Amino acid sequence: MGNVPFHFSYHPSYNLRLGDHVFPSVKFERIREELEKRGLLSEANLLKPVQATREQVMLVHSPDWVAALMDGTIRYDQVMRLEIPYSRPMVEGFLYHTGGSIEAARAALRDGAAFNIGGGFHHAFGGHGEGFCAIHDVAVAVRVLQEEKAIKTAMVIDTDVHQGNGTAGIFAGDHSVFTLSIHQRDNYPYEKQTSDLDIELDDGIGDLEYLSALQAGLEEAFSRMQPALVAYVAGSDPYEQDKLGGLQLTMGGMMERDLLVMRAARSRGIPIFVTLAGGYAVKLEDTVALHTNTALALAATMTA
Ligand SMILES: [Zn+2]
Predict the structure, then answer these.
(1) Domain ranges for the chain
(2) What is the tens place of the pLDDT at every residue in 169-217?
(3) Alpha helices of the chain — where are they, by DSSP H?
(4) CATH topology assigned to domain 7-303
(5) By CB atoms within 10 Å of each CB, which of 44, 198, 232, 250 scores lowest?
(6) What is the reported pTM?
(7) What is the CA(121)–ligand 1 centre distance, in A?
(8) What's the 126 CA to ligand 1 centre distance in angstroms?
C-alpha cells in the first residue's frame, strides 16, 4: 500500500477552475505533490475516483438542485448564493470530489482510515448550494454506504472555522448520523443550523482553549453515539493567518486538533475518513502545509 497503511483519493479535476477566487482550488494539486514529496503518497496508495453518479447525488440533494447543476438549469440567484461561477468543469469537479469521498469512506471501512485530498463541502444543503459548496460530498458518501448496507450509523466531526450548516440541515432529525461542529460563532453562516452538538467559539480563541473545548466535545459526542464510521471535515481555516477565519490557532495547534479527532476515533476502533474543506491562509504554502499536516497526523495515528 506504500509507506502509510491507508489510501488517498485524488483526481486532477478537483481543480474547480474558479479563476481569481478567494477559494484556491489549485491547492488540491499542490497538496498531492507535497504528499508525494514527503513519501506519504505513491501510485500504490492512490485511489482514482470516478464522478459520483446522478443517483448517488440524489440520495442527498433534491431533483431541482441536481438538475440545476447537472442539466445547467441553475438560476442567477442560485449562483449568487453559491458564490462561485457556474461552469461544467466546476460541476464535474464537485462530482469528482464526491466520488473521492465515497471511495475514501469505503477504503476507511477496509483499512481503518482513508484521506480524500479534497471534499468537505459542508455548506451544501439538500436543495441549494452556498459558501463555495455545490454538492455535499460527505453526506453523499455516508448515504451511499448506508444504501449499500455497509454502515448503519456515522458521525460527522467538523472542525472548519465555519459551522457545518449544510451537514446539520441534511441530517436534521436523522438519528443514524450524529453531527458535531466546532466553529467561530460570529462568522459565516450568520444564520446557524442546529447540529447534534455545536461548540461555538468566541473570536480570537487560541490553541489551549480550542483544544480543551474540542476534547470535551469529542467525549460528549462519543458518549452519545458509537458510530460505524467517522467523517472528519478538517477545514484549515481556524488557523491564525486565515483570511476568512477569526480564530488564532497556530500551525502546531492545528495538528494537535487533527490528532485529537483521529485518536478519538482510532482509540475506539472506529474507521475514519478525512476530507479537507476550507483554507484561505494569506500564504497558499500555509494552506498546503496545514492540509499536509492533517495527512501526517493520520499517518502518525495509524502507525502509533
Ligand atoms: Zn470554512
Answers:
(1) 7-303
(2) 999 999 999 999 999 999 999 999 999 999 999 999 999 999 999 999 9
(3) 27-37, 54-58, 63-70, 76-82, 88-111, 137-147, 165-171, 207-224, 251-266, 284-303
(4) Arginase; Chain A (3.40.800)
(5) 44
(6) 0.96
(7) 9
(8) 19
Phi, psi for residue 255 in degrees, rounded to 5: -70, -35
Q: What are the phi and psi torsion angles at 25 (to 5°)?
A: -75, 0
Exposure string of 162-184, with b = 16+ CB inside 10 Å and e = fewer, is bbbbbbbbbbeeeeebbbbbbbb
Euclidean distance between CA atoms 243 and 159, whole angstroms = 17
CB 54 within 8 A of CB 66: yes
Residue 279 CA to residue 275 CA, distance in Å, equals: 12
C-alpha 235 to ligand 1 mean position (Å)? 6
Contact 1, 45 (CB under 8 A): yes
Burial 6-21 (b: 16+ CB within 10 A, else e): bbbbbbebbbbebeee
Ligand 1 midpoint to CA 254 (Å):
14
Going by pLDDT thresholds of 50, 70 and 90, the confidence category of residue 18 is confident
Phi-psi region of 202 (alpha: psi -120 to 50; beta: other; left: phi over 0): beta
Q: Give bridge partners of residue 178 from the DSSP assignment.
A: 155
Select from 103, 35, 93, 37 the least CA-distant residue to 294. Answer: 35
